[in-house]
């Protein structure tokens, strides 16, 4: 999440899972995966986006926002490798993105 925008990332994952369903995916890091793995990661990003937006709608900010999102995100994805290490920074990055305060590296688009 640190160097990407969720909206185009979700759209790309949708397209890959649909159009390349029979392929094996080799990510830049992590295990080799299938279209099901791509769809699962897409689900994580969409869930993260929704939970953070819901917490923002409740006027939560900072640690209170992350504390509100973590248990709900963990219910669904807590068994994933590195969840405890990456989830909180993902929440912070998604919060910044949804507030329009995230710096997206040049050459990418938040459209």
Integer average pLDDT:
91
Which regions have little confidence, pLDDT < 50, spanning 5+ residues?
Answer: none
N/C terminus separation = 16 Å
Total helix count?
4
**Binned strand content:** under 5%
SS class? mainly alpha
- Helix content range of the residues, please? 55-70%
- What is the string of helix and strand elements? HHHH
Total number of β-strand segments? 0
Largest sheet entry: none
Overall spatial form: globular
> Gyration radius, to the nearest Å?
14 Å
Number of domains: 1
Question: How are the elements arranged and paired?
Answer:
Blueprint: H1 6-19, H2 35-57, H3 62-77, H4 83-98
Describe the structure.
- The mean pLDDT is 91.
- The protein has helices at residues 6-19, 35-57, 62-77, 83-98.
- Helix 2 packs across helix 4 and helix 3 (62-77) packs across helix 4.
- The chain contains four helices and no strands.
- The chain is mostly helical.
- The chain has one domain.
- Helix content is 62%, strand content 0%.
Provide keyphrases for this structure.
mainly alpha; 111 residues
In short:
By secondary structure, the protein is mainly alpha-helical. The protein contains 4 helices and no strands.
């Amino acid at each position: 999440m640190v160097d990407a925008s969720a909206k185009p990332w979700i759209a790309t994952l949708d397209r890959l899972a649909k159009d390349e369903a029979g392929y094996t995916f080799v990510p830049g890091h992590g295990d080799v995966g299938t279209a099901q793995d791509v769809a699962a990661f897409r689900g994580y990003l969409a869930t993260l986006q929704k939970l953070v937006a819901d917490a923002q709608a409740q006027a939560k900010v900072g640690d209170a926002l992350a504390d509100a999102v973590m248990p709900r995100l963990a219910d669904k994805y807590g068994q994933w490798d590195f969840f405890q290490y990456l989830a909180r920074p993902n929440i912070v990055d998604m919060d910044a993105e949804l507030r329009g305060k995230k710096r997206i590296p040049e050459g990418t688009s938040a459209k």
